[in-house]
């Protein structure tokens, strides 16, 4: 194998590696597009739907909330456990640093106190002077009817947080941070507040609606796949030129073959004009 062929093989390998990498990147972007598209469909189906009793969605405390049920609007009546208010750290809202305000809500039950649902009531701006739950507007007192959008709880966090604060909405961590007794039963989900009746004395800034922007994942996927095709075509052409000995590493195109003089012209000898010019040059010479 000569040098040109070796360079051609190297270019083909580079083309394959680039094409595979671009294809995988495009597949990842396509997967993100499919996931986001499904999330948007769930939001559009559930977010503005009429509220239903929470028991119709979660008949048991340990009933899992499926992906298709996320953002479902449910209603329940009970009272807030305001003393168990907790702040959720590091959750910017519309690019503004903020704390989410998490308050346990205990549902009424015929046989006494019912289960607790952690409610994300809204948010307050991040403050360097007040980072305690007392900085949040208080929820309404007494018997309250609320509607919330159901959300799946988040994974437990191993990061520490100041007293009265949490890093994630993991139900048991939130209740523990709020001083709620472990014996109190709770739903394994939380709710984003939609409405509460009666209204609180001091309103809290509501959470924004979930985004339905699909982003640029689909266009990025096609861009990566275009790059994959371009790598195969571009490096493939370069490899073909090297294999033919026409590449830059081969010293350019091969020199053209010398022009062959016909035999009849070679046998003819010098013409009369050539002989005359030679005689004149001899006479003028020294």
UniProtKB/TrEMBL annotation:
Keywords of the record: Membrane, Transmembrane, Transmembrane helix
Q: Which CDD domains match?
A: SURF1
Return the Low complexity bias intervals: 258-269
Cellular location(s) = Membrane
Chief location bin: membrane
Q: Which InterPro entries match?
A: Surf1/Shy1, Surf1/Surf4
The keyword Transmembrane helix is assigned to this record: yes
Gene Ontology cellular component annotations, sorted alphabetically: membrane
- Which parts of this chain are annotated as the region Disordered? 244-286
Keyword presence, Transmembrane helix: yes
The record, for Pfam families, names: SURF1
Output this protein's name: SURF1 family protein
Q: Which organism is it from?
A: mine drainage metagenome
